[in-house]
């Protein structure tokens, strides 16, 4: 709680002290009474306001905060509702006459005061306002700041109520056309065991990472001592790994994450198990940390993919970024997920990164977009594209900031 006098209270207190001193010096009883009355008014107001402080004592006010939607995509709005409730009559007295102000991170408020609508009921006050998610990340809301003044306007107190809440912001995503016919042609599907619908829906094969556990044939698995799954068209969809090389330049970071997230969702909508592998700090964890997400999981599958992008950070330097990418490429090469599709969003690569990514194409269908973060990097990006093509990748060059759909269609066109 912060208790402070208003300008009126300061003036009244100073006037009271002056009147009291003059009355004593001059022997004027009336001046002494006036000065004493003014000081008592200020002190009494401070005591009354302090007693009704909503942040202290047994009769605290409860605060609940909801954000819809949460998470929200960057560039979209979220509606925030803050409900302040009095749980008993004593708390109801404290609730009356309060003024409310909400706090929000600059990434949500844009640095401007929040314009809220306040709705009052006998035991509850509801504060609603909207925020604009400017950047991907996790941004705080609250705590609620409440102020109260006395009827004479001489003292004001402020306090905070409730805990901070958090709004998670996903990257902006763009709907992309499902590319199954381009990425997985019929010859590839036959070679990799992706079956067309047939009456032999119960044929079995070994379990591969990304298969739906609901298709496990438990009796056959028990006989053979290894997991066996029913191999039908859905179970044979090739798993997709989206490899993201995080740029050190902040200007390219959000665009790259948005492109990778959009590609991941396009493949998920096409029925493929998908995982997002970022060239960041998380590449030091075991391969099990990059589990595949299935569209059969429902809306939660999209959320699970997008949640993995919220905490992605740019590397501290280009050297660190390349080391992380090499680690991610090694992870892809050693997870024994032969026959998967690898979609990569890359920057210009050094020799070690090119060598590491060359091995990825040995047992996977590999596609990449290579960004030129600055005009000076266009030649390096073109050199990277040519090196990847020699290693068996399909690759094209893109520029950060251009439409995501254009980059996607250019990548698919590189197969022709």
From TrEMBL:
InterPro entries per the UniProt record, alphabetical = DUF58
Name the residues that span the membrane: 9-28, 34-52
Q: Which keywords describe this protein according to UniProt?
A: Membrane, Transmembrane, Transmembrane helix
Q: Which domain of life is it from?
A: Bacteria
Per UniProt, residues of the DUF58 domain are: 204-249
Q: What organism is recorded for this protein? A: Cellulomonas terrae
Query: What is the protein named?
Result: Membrane protein
């Amino acid at each position: 709680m912060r208790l402070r006098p208003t300008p009126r209270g300061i003036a009244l207190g100073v006037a009271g002290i002056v009147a009291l001193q003059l009355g004593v010096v001059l022997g004027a009883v009336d001046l002494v009474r006036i000065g004493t009355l003014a000081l008592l008014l200020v002190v009494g107001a401070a005591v009354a306001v302090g007693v009704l402080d909503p942040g202290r004592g047994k009769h605290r006010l409860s605060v609940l905060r909801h954000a819809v939607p949460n998470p929200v995509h960057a560039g979209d709005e979220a509606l925030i509702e803050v409900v302040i409730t009095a749980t008993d009559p004593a708390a109801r007295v404290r609730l009356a006459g309060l003024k409310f102000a909400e706090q929000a991170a600059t990434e949500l408020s844009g640095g401007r005061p929040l314009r809220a609508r306040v709705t009052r009921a006998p035991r509850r006050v509801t504060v609603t306002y909207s925020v604009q998610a400017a950047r991907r990340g996790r941004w705080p809301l609250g705590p609620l700041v409440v102020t109260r003044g006395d009827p004479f306007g001489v003292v004001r107190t402020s306090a905070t109520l409730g805990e901070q809440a958090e709004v998670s912001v996903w990257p902006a995503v763009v709907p992309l056309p499902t590319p199954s016919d381009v990425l997985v042609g019929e010859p590839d599907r036959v070679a990799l065991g992706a079956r067309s619908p047939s009456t032999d829906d119960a044929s079995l094969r070994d379990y591969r990472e990304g298969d739906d556990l609901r298709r496990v044939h438990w009796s056959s698995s028990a006989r053979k001592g290894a997991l066996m799954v029913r191999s039908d068209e859905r179970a044979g969809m090739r798993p997709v790994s989206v490899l993201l090389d995080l740029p050190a330049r902040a200007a390219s970071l959000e665009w790259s994450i948005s492109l990778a997230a959009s590609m991941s969702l396009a493949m998920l909508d096409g029925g493929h198990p998908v995982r997002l592998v970022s060239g960041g700090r998380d590449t030091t964890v075991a391969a099990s940390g990059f589990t595949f997400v299935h569209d059969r999981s429902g809306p939660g599958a999209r959320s699970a993919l997008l949640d993995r992008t919220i905490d992605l950070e740019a590397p501290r330097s280009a050297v660190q970024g390349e080391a992380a990418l090499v680690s991610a490429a090694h992870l892809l090469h050693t997870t024994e997920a032969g026959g998967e599709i690898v979609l990569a969003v890359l920057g210009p690569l050094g020799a070690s990164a090119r060598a590491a990514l060359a091995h990825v194409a040995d047992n996977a269908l590999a596609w990449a977009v290579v960004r030129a973060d600055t005009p000076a990097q266009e030649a390096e990006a073109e050199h990277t594209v040519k090196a990847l093509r020699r290693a068996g990748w399909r690759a094209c060059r893109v520029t950060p900031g251009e439409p995501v759909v254009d980059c996607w269609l250019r990548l698919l066109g590189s197969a022709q």
